[in-house]
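Crash report, auto-generated. Payload:
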Amino acid sequence: MSEQRPARDMTPALGTRGEPGSWRRAVEGGRVALARPGWGDAAWSYLFGSDTRYAEPAPDSERVAAVNWRMRSQTSPGPVLGPVIHAPVWTWEVPLYFWFGGMASGAAFAALGADIAGDEVSARVARKVALAAVLPAPALLIADLGRPGRFLNMLRIFKPRSPMNVGAWCLVAFSTAGAGAVAADLLGARRAGRGLGAAQALLGSYLGSYTGVLLATTAVPVWARSRAFLGPMFVATATATGAAATRLTLAAAGQAEGHPTQVALARLESGAILAELTLSTVNERRLGRAGEALSHGVPQRLFRSAKGLVGAGLVLPVIARRRARRPAQNLSSLLYLAGGLAFRFAWVQAGKASGRDDEAVALMARGRVTTDEHLRAGTQQRAVSEDRPPLAEGGPRSALRRWSEVVGRTSLLVERLTNRVVMSSR
Amino acid sequence: MSATTAVPTELAIHRGGARRMGFFTDTTTCIGCKACEVACKQWNDLPADGSQFKPRSSYDHTGDLSASTWRHVRFVELLEPSPLLRNEALTALPAIPAAGNGELPDLVAMAEDVGSKWAFMSDVCKHCTNAGCLDACPTGALIRTEYETVVLQADVCNGCGYCVPACPFGVVDRDPIDGRAAKCTLCYDRLEDGLEPACAKACPTDSIQFGPYEELVTQAERRVSELHGRGIEGAYLYGAGDDPEHELAGGLGAFFLLTEAPERFGLPAEADSPIQENLVAATAAAVGAGLLAATAAAVLFATARRGTR
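Recovered output after restart:
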């Protein structure tokens, strides 16, 4: 996966590697030597003695709050001695997953369109394309994990706050609906196929866009600052690549050039690419210092090639002679697919560069102080927690806990088995 | 300030009577001995990362906060004198050769006048009230404990790496060899047994103080007031004692006393959980665009069919 690092002895001093930690007393009810209840061992300090004045007896809380804010907002930040945040650790699997997942969503949109237009043959092909595109997605996601054997842990809870958790659930639902739709098509259950296809398109509107949300909800300046643009841009790439893949498949199956489905798909892909180019141009202009990662080094080269590829794809069918129109159209679809892949890699690489740009991170925080204050006030969530009773037995919450336990145990079992296989193969 | 501010919907351990516990790290008494780092590594079974002097690292040789370094003493060299001090120094320096017939100038006092300082800050997980890592974690490996600290359950984490860029303070990291993310637990296991965390126990100058959150905040405010009284006007608290509208990530469970702009210590001037800041806006835009794309596909197909008839 990543480069070879020197092996480090990770044998834990207690317990077995990969097993739950044993934070238990050796003897039930046993006490730690010299421990005093209520953290009494932390109470003493010579600094608090009456003869060494460490602190003023009566603090001026209002003045402290004022100085806190003045030092954080009105001083010059000076040189930023980073690192401030950690750059993302994701490798090539993630952008490739974005590409495949997006293509599947786009193909699901195409299937929905073909169904609505009454072109059942094309709809069936589009649903097969969607299924084929989504098949590599779980494998890529699992390969990216630090502990692939524990992939199932993603499904031990449902956590609406975490886009990655909801995305994992959506991927499962999308793949299930896709497999069901293709199976229904093969069995000749037309209404079931159409229904599942429509459900897939609905799920696809999240599967193709949540990846943008995933990146936007981080502390990485170039991603966080593009929060309203990343989702729509990713949807545009998804639609373009999905429509292109479907159109190419249909053309390879012998669909005529003037067929309405071909026409609609060609319009859909170029429209999506136009939307993508517009959105990314507008976004780059408004990013300012946070967007510097987009215009330097590897991300810059990736963005340039992405734009070059899709730009050529847009121009080709327009300038092609009448006789060469069909190969030109096919070539432009291939260019969209390649450009979409380059966009995915460019965004992930830009995030890595931006996370290492300490000054941009610090300036984003400073900028938030002045410009986004009203936004912050609106979105700030706070609640006073009270001593809540333990979860009651029975009812949906207890069922959730049982589910979580079953998945957690299965996950550990899977990991133990894979570990055993890996160990025995060494 | 609200006493306890955990968001009720998050994954958490609840125990009646448990109080919020935290760290108060006073950089004015830190001597940079790195005993806290050693104590942390020893108690938590963390491997050494090797010792390396890097350019512009001010003789700090233990790297940064990472999956295997949960406490890290940052060495900060403040070599840029203020313009005023620079002018004073420039007028004082030519006096040195001329000092042969009189008294020698006090070189130590002069060096202090130039304004160069060597500050140390023992950095650690902030145990935020609005914790970005906790919001991001898709497996529920990161939880809120009964002490309102944020703890990563190593037996649940599957190493997805989402918490790494979701932390606005660059604390949690994924271990490239172990594959899982790891960070400070505020010695949850020691707390359960009534012991203070290893780093606070080891700190020889009480730069790291541990205790119930409210008491720590009062203590820290008293310290700041004392320093102000002594003329150190720039002393301030990073992450506690703020007005509610200026709180960092809803208030930090581990907060700091600093004397310079936060950026000098690699800290952002303002921070919040990126998910609580961006999730609603980003999801609305994204799902809206997704539904729009599906609709556009349907419309294009319908019009294309009509066009060919």
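Post-recovery validation: Residues 1-8 of chain B have pLDDT under 50 and may be disordered.
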